[in-house]
Amino acid sequence: MTPVQPKLSTDDVSLLMVLIDTNPFFWNAANTTSLSFSKFLSHVVAFLNSVLLLNQLNQVVVIATGINTCDYVYDSSAAGPLPNQRAESLLQKLVEFVVKDEQLGKEDSVDGIGSSLLSGSLSMALCYIQRVFRSGPHHPQPRILCLHGSPDGPEQYVAIMNVIFSAQRLMVPIDSCLLGAQHSAFLQQASYITGGVYLKPQQLDGLFQYLSTVFASDLYARNFLQLPKPVGVDFRASCFCHKNTIDMGYICSVCLSIFCKHHKNCSTCGNMFEYFTNVVEKLTLLPWNH
Starting at the edge strand that comes first in sequence, how are the strands of the sheet with 198-199 ordered? Predict the structure, then answer.
């Protein structure tokens, strides 16, 4: 594996990876949010333009997160320089993505709002950042901003935790702006572990003000700002058997898989617990950074 080159660019140059939740079940839910998807996009486009205006070397990449797939929809390094061209390019790509995501949908109806492929979009963001790292010694400071509203998908627990630890190792902070009614345990852990900012706006009509005052600043400027601090982070894990969030569980001593009930063998690594003593121990789950 090629080592990551040291960063030699100025501290105020940023590579901002923006993850937009396009889950139609979330945006169509009448009682979920008071902000329509069109108004949400107007706030996002204004925020992206402000980030690019802060420094001519700043770069913005937008990844759409659907319920069946995720894809790159905008890259400021390849788009037109004018603000109206940026907006037109982003909106056109988003429309194409939503149609594609709908076509890939299953015939079975989704119960409730459903979850978006947050693990996939986070992985794509890290892949893009890794490609920038390997392009040469001069590159901006990368960070990820998740504009998310869908509920957590317990089946994505392992993949999301792997992405979080990879971002921590690369020193890439994951910022989270939650648009839904409920908090996201996944994004709380992601922002806490990677040193990012977690925010759940109280007034969604003023989303642009939240984005510009909290998430527009580069990593160097954050040393001099009083940004929101994490309060009440949910460190509970999800079991591998039923994908439920648990406080107490059984942990395999071989592969560290978590189960809510005792099993004769591990479904992950296949280890037979009956041949070993104390292979499965019941203990309280601690924060990941302990």
Answer: 70-75, 59-65, 14-21, 141-148, 174-178, 198-199
**Amino acid at position 163, single letter:** V
- Among 124, 125, 116, 157, CA closest to 143: 125
For 53-107, write each residue's pLDDT tens digit: 988 889 999 999 999 999 999 998 875 556 667 778 888 899 899 888 888 875 4
pTM of the full structure = 0.81
Give the amino acid at 197.
Answer: V
Task: For residue 188, give both structure tokens.
Answer: 């709380």
Region for residue 136 given its phi and psi (left: phi exceeds 0; alpha: psi -120 to 50; beta: otherwise):
left
Cα 159 from Cα 203, distance rounded (Å): 31
> Is residue 29 classed as helix, strand or coil in its secondary structure?
coil
- What's the distance, CA 88 to chain centroid? 25
Task: For the chain, report the end-to-end CA distance as a whole number of angstroms.
Answer: 28
Domains of the chain with bracketed CATH: 14-106+113-223 (3.40.50.410), 237-289 (no CATH)
- Strand duo 59-65 + 70-75: pairing: antiparallel
